[in-house]
Structure formats: structure tokens, C-alpha cells
Amino acid sequence: MVVDRITLKIVLPELATNIRYEAPYPVIEGPRELIKTYLDTVGRPVLVLSKANLVDQHIQELVVRYEFASWSLIREPLMATTFFLVLFLTVILAVRLNFSIVQDASTEMKQRLGCLTSEIVGLQDRRSALYQCYEDAINKFKSGKDHGRFKSDVNKVTTDHKALTKKVAELVKAIRSDPAFAPPGDLLERLDELQRQDSRLAELLQTAASQAEALVANKITRQQYLDADAKHVKNKEDAVARIEQLVEGL
Fold first, then answer.
1. Which one Pfam family would you cite for this protein (predicted)?
2. Are residues 66 and 118 in the same domain?
């Protein structure tokens, strides 16, 4: 097989330097070129070699040597990562930031009202956690009969509950008294009922504590306690369910 003339173009990595080659026979080197592909900045160097009158005996190895910095291997992945990161941040800022010069007063009031109701929900969650602490203290007292520790636990729970209830009442008062909020009537009704149901649940737990003390002191029989406790559990479950329903509606 005879080839009259062949031109070989070898594309090297971008930023390759000190390019040289070793041919087993004389070849003609043409002007080097640059080719740009995806994510290239300056382009990839192209080594151009040509040779005329080739036969089968010319099929031999051609060695190309060049220098290439190892950090260049991660240059393009870093460029792609940086591009998408900047793109995502730009979209996030464009969506979330408010570029209007004057903020709508009604929107601001709705946001403030939403913050206050969210704070009330958080306080109610903490009060619900105290209910469980109260019941745990009652159960420990019935089994361990440590009256001193029981009183200490109950006093701590009661103090924390009063503090949380006071904060909730202050927030409800702030919503009710500020005409700028203009809260819907059903919201105020739900907040008022939330306070009533919480007060009811606190009274039920106090009654349960008194019954436990009477049982431990042998002032009532175990059957009397069980009968009263069954009614107490039903009322407590109703109050808890109603509180959860009210919180979901805020």
C-alpha cells in the first residue's frame, strides 16, 4: 500500500507546554494550531505533521512528549462547579430578595403576624412537653413513693408552665391590641380556646397528682383511684387532641 501524502494532527491537552516529538523517519512539521472545545479558555495545541510517499514500512511508533501541570487536571471540573454554584446562588438571591424600594405595609403586617403565631406554636410545644414531664413525675411517685422528690418535680413543672403561659398570653394580647395586624376573628377565637384548653389540661394534671397522693397515703382504695383515673385519662386525651387541632390551624 502506498499513500501519496498524509497529514497527521495530534490534539494535546490545554495548557500543554514544551511540546516535542520523536519520529523514526523525517517528517514535515506544519504550523501549530489551536482548537477550542467545551470549557476551554485558550484552546488546545495541535501538533501538525505531514509526510509524503508512505508505504507499509513507515508504520512505526511516533512519540510525542509535552509538559502538563497536574493541577490542570482539576481546572475544568472546578470551572464547571464554580459556574453552577454561581448560577444557583444567583437564582436563590433573585427569588428570595425583595428589590422593591417600599415594602407593602399589609405584607409586612402579615409577616409579623405569622412570626407571632409561630412563636405561640413553639411555646405550646414546650407546654406539651411539660405535660409529659408532669405525668412522668406522677408515675414515679406512685412507684417510688418519694413525696419530697415528687413535690420538687411538680413545683418545677408548674413554675415553667406558668412562665410559658404568661408568654403566650402576652403574645395573644399583642395580636389583639394592635389594630395594624387586623387578624381574622377565627384566629383570635382559636388562640383563646387554646388558652382555655391548656388551662383545662393543667387542672386535670393537678387533679391526677392529688389522686396519686391520696392513693399513696391510703386515703382512697386502688379501685377508687383506677375509676377516677380512667375518667381523667379520657378527659386528658380529649384536651390534648383539641390542643393539637388548634395548633394545626394556627
1. Ribophorin_I
2. no
If asked whether residues 116 and 192 sit together in one domain, one would say yes
Name 5's bridge partners. Answer: 52
Beta-bridge partners for 49? 8, 29
pLDDT at 60 over 60: yes
Q: Of 11, 55, 8, 46, which is closest to residue 27 (Cα–Cα)? A: 8
- Residue 99 domain flag: no
Neighbouring C-alpha atoms within 13 Å toward the C-beta of 133: 17
β-pairing, 44-54 with 63-67? unpaired
Domain assignment of residue 82, yes or no: no
Amino acid in the structure at residue 18: N
Same domain, 158 and 206: yes
Task: Please determine, for residue 202, whether its predicted confidence score (pLDDT) is greater than 90.
Answer: no
| Residue 180, domain extent | 105-248
In 3D space, the residue among 47, 22, 21 whose CA is nearest the CA of residue 34 turns out to be 47
Q: Cα–Cα distance between 60 and 54 in angstroms, integer?
A: 11
- Same domain, residue pair 29 and 148: no
**At 220, is the secondary structure helix, strand, or coil?**
coil
User: What are the pLDDT digits (tens) for 139-196?
Assistant: 888 888 888 888 888 889 889 989 999 998 888 888 887 766 555 667 888 888 888 8
